[in-house]
Amino acid sequence: MATTHNLGLPRIGRDRELKFALEAYWRGDLDRQGLDQTGLKIRRQNLELQSSLDFLTVGDFSLYDQVLDSSFLLGNIPPRFRETEETATLDRYFQVARGSSSPGSPPVAPAEMTKWFDSNYHYIVPEFRQTTEFELASDTLLSRINEAAPGPKRIKPVLIGPVTYLWLGKSKDGGDRLDLLPHLLPVYAALLNQLAASGVEWVQIDEPVLVTELSPEWQHALRLSYYQLQSTPLKLLLTTYFGQLRENLQLACELPVAGLHIDASRQQDEVDRLIDWLPKHKILSLGVIDGRNVWKSNIKAMLTWLEPVHYRLRERLWLAPSCSLLHVPIDVERERSLDPEIKSWLSFAKQKLTELALLAKALNHGRELTAAELEANAHASVMRKRSQRVFNPAVGQRLATIDSSMAERNSPYEQRCRLQADRLNLPVFPTTTIGSFPQTESIRKYRREYRHGRLTWQEYQQVMRQEIACCIQQQERIGLDVLVHGEAERNDMVEYFGEQLDGFAISDNGWVQSYGSRCVKPPIIYGDVSRTGTMTREWISYAQSLTAKPVKGMLTGPVTMLNWSFVRDDQPRATTCLQLALALREEALDLERAGIAIIQIDEAALREGLPLRRSDWRKYLEWAVHAFRLCANGVRDRTQIHTHMCYSEFSDIIEAIAAMDADVISIEASRSDMELLDVFEAFAYPNAIGPGVYDIHTQNLPTLNGILVHIRQAMKRIPADRLWLNPDCGLKTRTWQEVIPALEIMQRAAEIVRESGCSGQAHSQQELASKN
């Protein structure tokens, strides 16, 4: 009999209850008891979702981030947050994630945040020092087990494994993270003993690091860890996901654990080898339901593949989603506005667990018992393949016209920058923002009113123009050099464009967590992508009409549109990306024709699309960079192209970033204390750079001295004529009360640096360009 289980579930709640409860708690409008009640409600709902499975997974719920939970579970709290012992544990938890500030004291910076493997989820990076000590604090996890224990189902807690936990973190003093493993493993052993004492039989212990390229030292760390932990009285299900094991397959099979889970949605070709190599006493858990995308599984096709596997493994076969369902929305049946045909092709978290139960039932009891359900599932797959709305011959014909010249600018950067300097006449160290300004409650209300038909287009246009005018006025008052229209009309940087492009569907409730209380609603790319009309020109042109200063036209780039959407799985991602690039190229040319001098094409998600193994990078970067260049490089030399990249490590792909040939790239740098700029000491980046000089993802107001320090750190690495100043990300999630003083401080810092750094030198980019 095949056994079913789940690796994790969405934790935001069916109606994003956790998001709203968190934000109310941070504002002081909700007390601890209210927050706890919201969390309990969501956990109970998630237990109910798993009722058709053989195991109930617990420990996957988090108030902010599961890696941060692990840090608190293991007693690894950054020292700067330990100094205020009177702070309640929960408040300290949020301080590590968001930073803290109090009257009369300097602000305390939050821990770094970065992407979880190749997903759009962000985790709080653990901090390590050579002196780091670990101390078990398991009360929260044990209480979650007790919540679920009274039922008849078996409980399976989930933990991040010790090696992956160290791998995810960062050494703050240059020490080797693996030197901490001997101190960490006794804490894990104590935890596993506690879980055994609480009646737990199986523990899911996640080591996704096994799908990456590991050095011999990290491979040895896995052996050491699990040979030491095998003495604990528990059965460990070693869990991997997001990729293939490849050269780590033998290692994974040999580790002394009771079972191994693999992402079989991505590595079916490894299953036969695993069955041959895995010792006969071990469980093999196959992640057969794709936990990263929203398309229905073809259960009949899965059965054809799995029936021989089931015959060989019998009770040793477990079935599960490929990874945690954190990465997909909760329930497609809550979608009321989706086109019924497209909706019939989709499967969210609840439906994926239903598919899993159906698959196991058919394997365990035969296809005949589930014939009607299997037929309904197969019908959806057939209808999707036959649908005429998926393929657009005109898009294919347009792709066939692409040639290499379309991805090239007319002149190299050295020539373009002079033309742009003459046109823009900006001061040295020009200041700007990344694009978005606060999405206030009134803006969201107007958008809802328009969407529900309670505002006419003319009324909606008028109120959005008022918001844009206010945004321009504030930027001019502050003194910023290059302005933005603020994106008041946009619900999301990807969804906004998806709503206006053919080939996209937009859900009502398809929310997934990005980090903390931040949720996004990825569009669904179901068919060939094309542009049917202008998407941004009217709003940008209106903003430009209000000021003599340049206003950036704001587009989301093709790679980010791809990586932040649920993408069709019936053609290569590279092909879909080229379709997006052509559609956005038309929009960029439209803006240029409207007189817009600067066009920013954000590629915030370029790096997160990288395959997890470096050996696979080249192919991805080739088509991703080509798509960006195809989108951006149709404009004339005097039009300046900007791009922006979010929280990422850039050093290992800096050559690819340079190959994008954007005139200006803005990057996150402040939260890493400008460490990301170290790469520019070794690599002569040829174009202009705008490092983020303050972190917008914290409640802390930046200090003048802090921004000046960051600017001077940047000046050591980036020539003055190519250095821009900006926040590290868009300001959508902040309030005006936070944004205005922060930008005023940034502008004042720019003026100080200009006054102190330009004595006897050029005071404008135009002068600098003429000297070079």
TrEMBL record:
The UniProt record lists the keyword Transferase: yes
Keyword Flavoprotein applies: no
Entry function: Catalyzes the transfer of a methyl group from 5-methyltetrahydrofolate to homocysteine resulting in methionine formation.
Catalysis: reaction(s): 5-methyltetrahydropteroyltri-L-glutamate + L-homocysteine = tetrahydropteroyltri-L-glutamate + L-methionine
Cofactor(s) in the UniProt record: Zn(2+)
Family (UniProt): Belongs to the vitamin-B12 independent methionine synthase family.
Active site per database record: 697
GO BP term, pick one: methionine biosynthetic process
Gene: metE
EC numbers: 2.1.1.14
Name of the protein in its database record: 5-methyltetrahydropteroyltriglutamate--homocysteine methyltransferase
Lineage: Bacteria, Pseudomonadati, Pseudomonadota, Gammaproteobacteria, Chromatiales
Domain (Cobalamin-independent methionine synthase MetE C-terminal/archaeal): residue spans on this chain: 429-751
List of residues binding L-methionine: 434-436, 487, 602
Binding site for 5-methyltetrahydropteroyltri-L-glutamate: 16-19, 115, 120, 518-519, 564, 608
An MF annotation (GO) of this entry: 5-methyltetrahydropteroyltriglutamate-homocysteine S-methyltransferase activity
Annotated Zn(2+) 1 binding sites: 644, 646, 668, 729
List of residues binding Zn(2+): 644, 646, 668, 729
SUPFAM superfamilies per the UniProt record, alphabetical: UROD/MetE-like (SSF51726)
Species this chain originates from: Candidatus Thiodiazotropha taylori
Known pathway: Amino-acid biosynthesis; L-methionine biosynthesis via de novo pathway; L-methionine from L-homocysteine (MetE route): step 1/1
Binding positions for L-homocysteine per the UniProt entry: 434-436, 487, 602
Keywords: Amino-acid biosynthesis, Metal-binding, Methionine biosynthesis, Methyltransferase, Repeat, Transferase, Zinc
One Pfam family named in its UniProt record: Meth_synt_1
Cofactor note: Binds 2 Zn(2+) ions per subunit. Binds 1 zinc ion per subunit.
Domain called Cobalamin-independent methionine synthase MetE N-terminal: residue spans: 4-310
